[in-house]
């Protein structure tokens, strides 16, 4: 028998290793001292979003627990703001809440969380889904464009092809990326739009 | 004679006793262990690791390839450190005298097996045997393995770890040694998630909403949980690969100073248990939870 086994046998016979040694022997506790049960835990999810205030388009991370936003902070990985937020952006968390006279926060009942549609001459909104809304928007853009498209104009007695419409105005967004805005611009030009602008005003 | 200034890790360890319930009971042991390691290396400086060509390293990091440094350590140094640690173990609790003796004995076996040089895998195998033979529980074996190996790696690789352009690195494992991290920090100044290698201490920024282990960026799959009353530590999890890592929220730490994530990790082992009970496994591969702890719920 090897020396190793003899010595190990000695320790075992001495009862010193009857229970395997664990970190609890040096005071580590992984459960609550009061209850002996695991500690209570709270699950949270993080979501990217873009600040809705100005045209800079800062990145924000929203912390959501039980379906409610509990915190909003600057996104450290966003190339524009690198984790920082201005005073308005820092308080954007409050867009989700209203406060009563005693300062108690409640979920803002006016915050839109679904597609609302008011039909022509109607006095109320209907709840619609996104597929319906996007199809309707696309259909109306095409109808308007087809109805108002000017194919040619006369310039000094000469017929010039223009293929344009003045009936639609496209307002792009500073909250989109440069690549997204490039694609929007190409799409607008392909449809014949000439009134194209966006919201960056800084 | 002037009073000896406390090391930085001591301040953070003291802070952890306030932040994490129950850690005060274990703090004297960890203090003794850190002091033991510090004293050991004061009397026995280690040789720096192999030189790293920083230009080549940069190319490697750009292409997403870790340098995968695996040190060949002096066997006698490693054995002596393990034996010093075994003394602290035995002094911490009389019940640990036997298991500490087993560690010394196993360590001596290392010299017989590899008299000149050993690598971290040899020490890992040793700790695995301690568990397999029923002498040690997994958490104690993981502690001794990580403490011993990181003590060498952090000292040997201090220079390349500091010089490495980690801003080029976007992966979830360590750019220097290739190990997967167990902990990280949300930086106090900008909230960036900075992962830290448990082995060599290299730090690098990793996208906040992204799993470091499987690279998943789907927001619905990712999340974190906190333990009530101990919100400094988040357990980030991925529901795609079912793995977790612990992130210390540096913005919640009062008093400034350096954050020693390995100490925060030891202070928050209850979070590891909670993560395991929630169905997640440690992405680092470091098992800090024992089988019977999982069973008693």
Structure, briefly:
By secondary structure, chain A is an alpha+beta fold. Chain A contains four helices and ten strands, in the order H-E-E-E-H-E-E-E-E-H-E-E-H-E.
Structure, described:
The complex is a heterodimer of chains A (202) and B (297). By secondary structure, chain A is α+β, with helices and mostly antiparallel strands. In chain A, 24% of the residues lie in helices and 31% in strands. Chain A contains 4 helices and 10 strands, in the order H-E-E-E-H-E-E-E-E-H-E-E-H-E. Chain A has helices spanning 3-13, 87-90, 130-148, 178-191, and strands spanning 41-50, 59-65, 68-74, 97-99, 105-107, 115-117, 126-128, 150-155, 158-172, 193-198. Chain A starts with a helix and ends with a strand. Chain B is an alpha+beta fold and 297 residues long. Chain B folds into 2 domains: 10-49 and 64-159, no CATH class; 167-295, Alpha-Beta Complex (FdhE-like fold), CATH 3.90.1670.10. In chain B, 46% of the residues lie in helices and 13% in strands. Chain B has helices at 8-19, 23-43, 54-62, 75-92, 97-113, 120-132, 138-156, 158-163, 261-267, 269-277, 291-295; strands spanning 73-74, 117-118, 183-186, 193-196, 203-206, 222-227, 230-238, 243-249, 281-282. In chain B, strands 3, 4, 5, 6, 7, 8 and 9 form a 7-stranded mixed sheet that branches. A two-stranded antiparallel ribbon of chain B has the order 1-2. The radius of gyration of chain B is 19 Å and the shape is globular.
């Amino acid at each position: 028998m090897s020396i190793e086994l003899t010595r190990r046998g000695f320790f075992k016979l001495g009862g010193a290793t009857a229970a395997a040694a664990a970190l609890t022997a040096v005071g580590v506790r992984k459960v609550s001292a009061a209850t002996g049960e695991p500690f209570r835990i709270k699950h949270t999810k993080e979501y990217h979003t873009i600040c809705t205030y100005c045209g800079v388009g800062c990145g924000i991370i929203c912390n959501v627990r039980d379906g409610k936003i509990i915190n909003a902070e600057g996104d450290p990985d966003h190339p524009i703001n690198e984790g920082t937020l201005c005073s308005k952006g820092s308080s954007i968390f409050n867009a989700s809440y209203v406060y009563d006279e005693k300062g108690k926060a409640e979920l803002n009942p006016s915050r839109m969380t679904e597609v609302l549609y008011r039909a022509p001459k109607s006095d109320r909104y209907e709840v619609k889904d996104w597929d319906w809304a996007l199809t309707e928007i696309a259909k109306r853009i095409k109808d308007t464009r087809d109805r108002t498209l000017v194919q040619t104009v006369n310039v000094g007695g000469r017929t010039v092809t223009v293929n344009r419409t003045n009936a639609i105005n496209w307002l792009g967004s500073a909250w989109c990326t440069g690549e997204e805005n490039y694609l929007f611009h190409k799409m607008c030009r392909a449809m014949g739009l000439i009134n194209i602008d966006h919201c960056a005003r800084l | 004679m002037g009073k000896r200034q406390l090391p930085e890790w001591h301040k953070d360890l003291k802070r952890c006793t306030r932040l994490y319930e129950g850690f005060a009971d274990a703090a004297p042991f960890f203090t003794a262990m850190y002091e033991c390691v510090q004293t050991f290396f004061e009397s026995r400086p280690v040789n720096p690791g192999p030189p790293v060509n920083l230009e080549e390293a940069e190319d490697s990091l750009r292409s997403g390839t870790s340098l995968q440094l695996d040190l060949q350590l002096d066997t006698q140094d490693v054995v002596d450190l393990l034996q010093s640690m075994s003394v602290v173990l035995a002094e911490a609790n009389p019940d640990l005298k036997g298991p500490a003796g087993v560690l010394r004995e196993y360590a001596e076996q290392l010299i017989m097996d590899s008299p000149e040089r050993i690598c971290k895998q040899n020490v890992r195998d040793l700790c695995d045997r301690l568990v397999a033979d029923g002498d040690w529980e997994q958490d104690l074996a993981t502690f001794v393995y990580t403490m011993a190996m990181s003590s060498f790696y952090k000292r040997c690789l201090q220079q390349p770890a500091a010089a490495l352009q980690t801003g080029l690195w976007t992966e979830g494992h360590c750019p220097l040694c290739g190990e997967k991290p167990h902990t990280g920090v949300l930086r106090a100044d900008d909230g960036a998630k900075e992962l830290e290698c448990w082995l060599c201490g290299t730090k690098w920024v990793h996208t906040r909403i992204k799993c470091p282990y499987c690279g998943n960026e789907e927001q619905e799959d990712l999340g974190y949980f906190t333990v009530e009353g101990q919100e400094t530590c988040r357990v980030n999890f991925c529901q795609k690969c079912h793995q977790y890592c612990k992130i210390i929220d540096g913005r919640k730490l009062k008093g400034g100073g350096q954050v020693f994530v390995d100490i925060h990790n030891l202070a928050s082992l209850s979070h590891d248990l909670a993560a395991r009970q929630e169905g997640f496994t440690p992405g680092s591969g470091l098992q800090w939870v024992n089988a019977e702890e999982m069973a008693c719920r």
